[in-house]
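Researcher: For the record, we're logging two predictions in this thread. I'll number them. Prediction 1 follows.
Model: Prediction 1, sequence and structure:
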Amino acid sequence: MARSQPISGNPNPPLRTRPWMAAFIIFAGACAIVFGIGSSIITGVANISFGTVWSAIVAYDPNNDHHVIVQTLRMPRALAGALVGAAFAVAGALMQGMTRNPIADTGLLGINAGAGLVLVLVFAFIPWLPFEYIILFSFIGSGMGALLVYAIAYFAKGGMTPLRLVLAGAVVGSLISGLTQALSLLFQINYDLAFWSAGGISTAEWFQVSVMLPWIVGGLIAAMLISRSITILSLGEEVASGLGQRTKLIKGIGTVIVMVLAGASVSTVGGVGFIGLIIPHIVRFLVGVDYRWIIPCSAVLGGVLVVFADIGAKLIALPYETPLGSIIAVLGVPFFLFLARKERREL
């Protein structure tokens, strides 16, 4: 990772940024999300026309099977995809900015795995728990996973580095996954675990969307509010401190935001990784290093990625569904290997 040059005496350091490109991405991405949601609603085992979709929205008939499919299955599924895509992408952008780790992602640093372990415990001991409380437990699990990974990397010989963070994430993720598998066998909840491991939004309902919506929207707004501070922090902790930045406070707030975004998403779609790895890199390449643009652009492109990946999940093996996590992993694994090789060359 290239080191930033120290900046002294300038509270507003010059940044490489392309606001015009960011504005175009936000506009074009928003249009793509609308188009993708519409396409997602009409695609699937049952072919449904746009006219039927419009009719189901403005003149819903509970006796019409296609109207029921649109209203109760496909619309909440498509909206859930846009929300969790935005949440995972912004969570990854925040993590990369705070840690200056180019391969930081909620799936690689133990956050998704921690949330999954706690969800399995909930399924085993309190399966009757309402979904709004399951989200709270997911927050706790994501925080525990992240804390364990950072603690191991911090106390390792030589201190915390991007490579050690990833190695700690791999170790912790494997450990937690093993515990999760063992608990699922012990309490016979293999089906729920299989859904979580594969990742997908096929079971998303309006109730789940209504519960996670305020958490994700609130997390995205909070991320925007600290975006300028994340930009300064991404220049390096010493530079940020020299510019008067309260680095520990910003990192604490950013970590809480990541936990909220990842926890709400994992509780709904399961262990989908790599979104927060791929999207922020693409956005930084296109718009520059100012997080005031990176965060909204990441939210939009993250939503686009998941919505269209979910369309692929429905169409690749009709009448069966391909796990959403597998589709995104096909893109994410080569991207991760490329970044890891690049990071190794620059160390």
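Researcher: Logged. Prediction 2.
Model: Prediction 2, sequence and structure:
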Amino acid sequence: MFDSLSIINLIININGKTILYDINLKLKTGDVIALVGPNGAGKSTLVKSLMQHYSIEIKKGSILFNKLLLNKLKTYEIARLGFFYVDQNPPQLEGVPMIEFLKEIIKINKPNSSFYENFALINNSFKELSLDNDLLSHSVNVGFSGGQIKKHELIQSKLLDSKVLLLDEIDAGLDIDAIKSIIKYINDSREKHITIIISHDLNIFKKIKPNKVLLIADKTIKKVGGIEIIDDIKKNGYKKYQSTTKQSIKNDPFKF
């Protein structure tokens, strides 16, 4: 079964200030999107808007998942629809045992699964992402390396059978082995969900091979295409996609 995600004429404000405008995008299961742009362009803001992050105000437009309007839903309701967001800095949960945390995650979709079924699912997930089972005795993310934390986030996504996977700088600060494991997981699971990836390391997209590249600059989508956009940015930077004036929003046609 294919899921669809549509963003229509979206305008996003934070603290009364327009951060993104005129955002339109249609995605389906199996799409892997590279979301690129200069610092401060609004990449993280866009993925957070899909989760109804508390700092985001949707001023205008619609977000539809399988024709269901998400604009008025709570973050936890969107998560239960199958959205999973990996933040740049996932939290540590002191006093929350990893094994119990993951078992509770499994119960969300498999409430009647046995202890042995749960352990098999967790064990197989740890093997798939080359994560040491000894971490199951730790509190969630406490004492983990950056790579271990990001792998653990992907394990949660896997156990939840996520339908929309939002990865905000999943590779930042990771060593080469952790990055390889994460790239392999993304490539192996790409047909199971819609994947949107933000990364400042454009080389990662040569290995993930997104089927669509979305370039955001000047608070809107400047270009949609394929890997040729990545090649152009690596060669020429973002300068040609940015306006020379700082009044790009001041005189925009959207008046409220």
